[in-house]
Amino acid sequence: MTTVNTKHQLNTEYNVTNTTALAMIATTMIGTAALTFPFIMMQLRSPLPYMATPKKKVLVALEEISKRKYISYNHHDKNYTPVSNINVYNKNINKNNIHNPLRFFDLGSGDGETVLAAGSAGWKATGIELNSTLWAISSIRRWCSNKFIRSNCNFLWGDMWKYDIRDADAVMIFGVKPLMPKIAKKISKECKSGTFVMSYRFCIPLLGSSASCTLKKFENGSNEISSKGDDEAADFGLLAADLIYDKEEMKIYQLR
Q1: Are 135 and 157 in contact (CB under 8 A)?
Q2: Taking a C-beta distance cutoff of 8 angstroms, is the pair 195, 171 a contact?
Q3: What does the mean pLDDT of the chain come to?
Q4: 84: confidence class by pLDDT, cuts 50, 70, 90
Q5: What's the rounded Cα separation, in Å, for the pair 90 and 40?
Q6: Neighbours of 160 (CB within 10 A)
Q7: Lower CB density within 10 Å: C or N end of the chain?
Q8: Residue 246 in contact with residue 186, Cβ under 8 Å?
Q9: How far is it, in rounded angstroms, from Cα 237 to Cα 215?
Q10: pLDDT by residue (tens digit) across 101-145?
């Protein structure tokens, strides 16, 4: 009788072990599928790539923008003195524009690196991300950051085309060719003159430019790019802006 009970106990333990192992394997597979599924769906819905932008390059570019904004705010001030730190730039700018602090938008914010960098430099930064996994990662990174960065950063989960960016002082984009007409049209329609557009690695075609990255001809074969209106040019992926910064694959454009 004892032998029978022992065998039954061993079989029960064996079954429990197998069930637990199978449950762990199934949970792992489901978890992996849940994390990778958004990447697959994102590629089907949007040609935007996932490419992390180095924090150092973002901060250098933002400092260039802040410096230009600071100078534009203070060029009439006889007591104006240059400063050498991005946080000092932004503190002075925001001090004089309490109701309109410098705002930064990242269209396709990925793991949040760019937005967190902007927030650490004193910008009111918003990231818009379609991929739920990347949005969750960036949100966790935000909550793990210090209070100053948390208060400056915000991550939105959704389609960037549905969000208004008219308050932006600077916009970060991935200027991939298939999306340029839509991106150029959105920026041209919503952003004010003087807004800065940042692009890492990708060259943005510009209206009226002879640069190699500019679309030379329209579909009808015309070379008269500069004669096109901003809205019409945007339909062809051309942005009415000037390239003002180009270092280490980071480019900054300013809307005309």
Answers
A1: yes
A2: yes
A3: 75
A4: low
A5: 39
A6: 22
A7: N
A8: no
A9: 8
A10: 889 999 999 999 999 999 999 999 999 999 999 999 999 999 999
Q: What is the b/e burial string over 79-104, where b = at least 16 CB atoms within 10 angstroms of the residue's CB?
A: eeeeeeebeebbebbbeeeeeebbbb
From 11, 87, 63, 71, select the one nearest 170 (Cα to Cα).
63
Q: DSSP for 11-72?
A: HHHHHHHHHHHHHHHHHHHHHHHHHHHHHHHHHHH------PPPHHHHHHHHHHHHHHHHHH
Give 38-69 pLDDT, tens digit per residue: 444 444 445 555 567 889 999 999 989 988 88
Kindly list the distances between the CA atom of residue 49 and the CA atoms of 36, 132, 238, in Å, as whole numbers in the listed order: 14, 15, 20
Q: What is the pTM of this model?
A: 0.71
Total residues found in the chain within this entry:
256
List strands edge to edge, sheet with 196-200.
153-157, 124-129, 103-107, 170-173, 196-200, 250-255, 241-247
Please give the angle made by the CA atoms of 217, 222 and 226, to the nearest 5 degrees: 80
Question: From CA 169, how far away is CA 148, in angstroms rounded?
Answer: 20
SS (H, E, C) 105-158: EEECCCCCHHHHHHHHCCCEEEEEECCHHHHHHHHHHHHCCCHHHHHHEEEEEC
Give the span between the Cα atoms of 209 and 246, in whole angstroms. Answer: 15
pLDDT digits (tens, 9 = 90+) for 1-10: 555 555 555 5
Strands, E assignment, 158-209:
170-173, 196-200
Whether 178 contacts 184, CB under 8 Å: no
171, 107 contact by CB (below 8 A):
yes
